[in-house]
């Protein structure tokens, strides 16, 4: 099962990165690499099938042989006048009912083994501890304070080392640093995604761990350079930020991100979007994601490289 899922993951990765493989002319290398994995999977599969065939053959011999032996014994006892005709028929039926299900048991055994291999991943998810439901809502005071904040994805590699930060309400604060220094980690902690932190993170004087998650998501909007846009129309995606928004509000927010002129030249708010908005450029996708976030109109916004594909002039206008 592990080999099967690994082969599927490799195939999906190669398919998604096919354009990159073509650019660097590495598709032939990946083809050979995948052929090697497929051959390993084929050999393992053939070994499993051989084992299953052998075990099924043995179970067939036991099942049908046992049933045949029961028939022979029943007929022998009947011809020797040791049992009646009804008793003979009963023994034949019982022999079949006893031995034939053993063949099915052998088949179920192999199905169960495959299920046990797949269940390992399922049980790892089921065994995860559920976070306790918190009932404290966020207050109107949205000032954020972090003190002695530590976080690590792995026990021997700490990302945040006792940092202290204050974000006053109504302020605009930028975190600047080299790649991998923990900027996105801080953003994920403030959104409540990374819960295994040490230290204190308070919002409006309340500890982040004690704030109700739904209240947190209503008051904090997170926008990254990978914000997802759904297949449908521009209107459908914008209304996720504010379901009761009017067309005037939608156009106003599109003007703020300098996307209105482009959409007016298309089909307006009914401009169709393909999966992941693949019919828009990277900058247009980020502008649309920003427009949706601005419609949400929350007290706190967290931008994680949300304007990386937008020109400087437009970024200044939006900010």
UniProtKB/TrEMBL annotation:
CDD domains xref list: ABCC_MRP_Like
Highest taxon in the source lineage: Bacteria
Record bears the keyword Nucleotide-binding: yes
Residues annotated as domain ABC transporter: 144-318
Chief place where the protein resides: membrane
Domain ABC transmembrane type-1: 1-114
Record key words, sorted: ATP-binding, Membrane, Nucleotide-binding, Transmembrane, Transmembrane helix
GO MF entries: ABC-type transporter activity; ATP binding; ATP hydrolysis activity; ATPase-coupled lipid transmembrane transporter activity
Subcellular location: Cell membrane
Transmembrane segments: 53-76, 82-100
Pfam families reported for this sequence: ABC_tran (PF00005)
GO cellular component: plasma membrane
SUPFAM superfamilies: ABC transporter transmembrane region, P-loop containing nucleoside triphosphate hydrolases
Membrane topology listed for this record: Multi-pass membrane protein
Sections of the chain in a coiled coil: none
PANTHER family found in the cross-reference section: ATP-BINDING CASSETTE SUB-FAMILY B (PTHR24221), ATP-BINDING CASSETTE SUB-FAMILY B MEMBER 6 (PTHR24221:SF654)
Protein name (database record): Cysteine ABC transporter ATP-binding protein
């Amino acid at each position: 099962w592990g080999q099967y899922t690994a082969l599927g993951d490799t195939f999906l990765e190669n398919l998604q990165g096919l354009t990159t493989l073509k650019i660097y002319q590495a598709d032939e290398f990946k083809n050979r690499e995948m052929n090697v994995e497929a051959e390993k999977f084929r050999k393992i599969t053939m070994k499993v099938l051989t084992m299953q065939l052998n075990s099924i053959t043995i179970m067939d011999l036991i099942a049908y042989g046992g049933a045949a032996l029961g028939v022979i014994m029943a007929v022998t006892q009947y011809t020797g006048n040791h049992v009646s005709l009804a008793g003979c028929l009963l023994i034949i039926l019982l022999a079949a009912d006893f031995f034939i299900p053993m063949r099915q048991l052998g088949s179920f055994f192999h199905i169960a083994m495959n299920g046990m291999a797949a269940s390992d991943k399922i049980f790892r998810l089921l065994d995860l501890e559920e976070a306790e439901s918190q009932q404290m809502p966020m207050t109107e005071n949205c000032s954020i304070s972090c003190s002695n904040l530590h976080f690590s994805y792995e026990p021997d590699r700490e990302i945040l080392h006792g940092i202290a930060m204050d974000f006053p309400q109504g302020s605009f604060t930028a975190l600047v640093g080299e790649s991998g220094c923990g900027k996105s980690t801080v953003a994920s902690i403030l959104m409540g995604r990374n819960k295994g932190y040490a230290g204190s993170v308070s919002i409006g004087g309340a500890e982040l761990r004690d704030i109700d998650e739904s209240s947190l998501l209503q008051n904090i909007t997170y926008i990254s350079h990978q914000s997802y846009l759904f297949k449908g129309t521009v209107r459908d995606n914008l209304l996720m930020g504010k379901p009761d928004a009017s067309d005037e509000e939608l156009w106003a927010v599109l003007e703020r991100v300098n996307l209105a002129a482009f959409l007016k030249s298309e089909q307006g708010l009914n401009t169709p979007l393909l999966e992941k908005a693949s019919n828009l450029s990277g900058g247009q996708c980020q502008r649309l994601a920003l427009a949706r976030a601005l419609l949400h109109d929350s007290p706190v916004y967290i931008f994680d490289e949300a304007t990386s594909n937008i020109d400087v002039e437009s970024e200044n206008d939006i900010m």
